[in-house]
Structure formats: structure tokens, C-alpha cells
Amino acid sequence: MKFECKNKYKMGYSFFGKNMKLKINECFNLAQNNITEYFKKFDGDNLFIRENYNAVWVASKTRIHIFNNAHWLETLDAESITTLVKPIRIEMETKFTNQDNELVFVASQQSCLLDMDTRKIRKIDTVNFPKDMDVEATLFENGYKKLNDEFDEEDFVYEQTVFSQDIDFSNHINNAVYVRYIMNALPIELLDRIDITDAEIHYLAEGKEGQKLRIYRKDIDDKTIRFLIKENDRELIRASIDYK
Predict the structure, then answer these.
(1) Looking at the structure, do residues 102 and 38 belong to the same domain, yes or no?
(2) Between 20 and 30 A from 94 (CA), which of 30, 79, 156, 183?
(3) DSSP letter at 113?
(4) How far apart, in whole angstroms, are the C-alpha atoms of residue 171 and residue 156?
(5) Best CA proximity match to 178, nearest among 207, 155, 156
(6) Where among 141, 165, 197 does a domain terminate?
């Protein structure tokens, strides 16, 4: 069975940073919004499955590739599809194109089902995900990166308290909020002179309100920066950006 979700999104002024480049966390937000509506097409969105199956979809990995910058007041066309279905995970892909039908950015998200009581991963067939879901080709040529860099205290940048507005419907830190945390480890001077082409984040554990998180940054070379967020000794996310 084929499902797709197409929407139009007008680029608001608050989506952009000081350099009028679309913020990376807003790319994550836009993709997340469209994927959520995709799930609603078959009564698979988090509001429905939490009420009926006591579970929610959570992202385990997300990656974004940026082709072109969006512009203020521009309208982007978004389309989400399914690119992989496994017993305990699925992958969705959302592409955003401008009015000239040029790709602006593409986001791929790997998701799993989380039981609301045990906070453990459940099999997809325990909810009403379509068993005959069509799987389509991905625009990403390579798989997810291995983010296994070593970090030490010399890589520490700042401490972040988790506040109530960082928490989403799944009762943990929202995916795009983590992106804002890591991007805050980069100074304006750097962001003004680079163009980010890729961003990838791996979600390893849940973050909750009131926790004190430590954000680390390691410059790999002149085109890649890696990040780690920890709560005490527990790793919450690992992430990477590539730029030119």
C-alpha cells in the first residue's frame, strides 16, 4: 500500500539565523512535522497510538542533506515517503523543494516504537502500522555514519539545563531541541562564514526536564565537527555536521 504526505510550508522570518540561512534545527522541525502528518494518514500518529496502544514513535537517528538555502517568505513543497521497514524500526524520508522544483534539503529519519510504561523498544507489529506498506528508493547514497569519536573534558563547551519547553508529547527532550543545543556550541563568527551541507544525530537515551546536560564539541578537520551530549556519564546523543 502506498502512502505519501505532501504539504506546503511558508518560510517564516523566525526560521532563519543572523545570516538569513535556514536554521538546522528548523530543518529538523519541518521534517518532523511532515512525518507526523504522514503517520496520521493511516492512524499511526503518536496521539492515536499512545491512546490506543500505549506507545509512541521516537527517532533513533536523523540525517539531513542541504542542497540549497531557502529564502524568507518562500514556499517549500514537502513530500514524505517510507524507505525501509524492519521488525523494530522504519525509515522515512522527506524532501523539500522550492517553486523551481529544486531540492532545498532532504531529511531521513529512523524511528522505533517506545512503550510508554517500560520505556523499552517494541515491535512495529504491536501497533497498526500497515503490513503492506510500499517501500521507495532513498535519495541518500550512503548509510548513517559511525559516530564513535573519543571526547574528553578539553572538548567540553557548556552546560545546559533541560526546561519544560524542551519536552514533547513523548515526555522527553524533543529531537530538534537537541539540534539547537549542539548548534549553540558554535559561535556566530563560524556560522557566518560556513555553509552546512549535512547534519546527523543519533539518539541514544532519553533526556528529561531538570537534568543538567554537558555539551561537547570536537573539530575533526576543516569540514566536519562532531558533538556529544551527556547527563553525568550517560550519553544522550552523538551528532555530526559537515560544512564547506
Answers:
(1) yes
(2) 183
(3) E
(4) 27
(5) 207
(6) 141
Provide the domain limits for residue 161. Answer: 145-244
Pairs from 165-173 (Cβ < 8 Å, separation ≥ 24): 166/207, 166/209, 167/208, 167/209, 169/46, 169/47, 169/50, 169/56, 170/46, 170/56, 170/58, 170/114, 171/116, 171/208, 172/58, 172/206, 172/207, 172/208, 173/206, 173/207, 173/208, 173/236
Which of 126, 141, 156 represents a domain boundary (last residue)? Answer: 141
Report the DSSP beta bridge partners of residue 110.
Answer: 61, 91
Same domain, 108 and 88: yes
How far, in Å, CA of 57 to CA of 130, rounded? Answer: 15
Judge whether 109 and 91 are in contact, CB under 8 Å: yes
**Cα distance between residue 138 and residue 81, in whole Å:** 9
Report the length, in residues, of the chain: 244
pLDDT tens-digit map of 123-158: 999 999 999 999 999 999 888 999 999 999 999 999
Shared domain check, 104 and 35: yes
C-beta separation of 9 from 74 below 8 A? no
My answer on whether 127 and 149 are in the same domain is no
User: Hey, what amino acid is at 216?
Assistant: Y
- Work out the pLDDT band at 242, boundaries 50, 70, 90: very high
pTM: 0.94
Domain CATH code at residue 67: 3.10.129.10
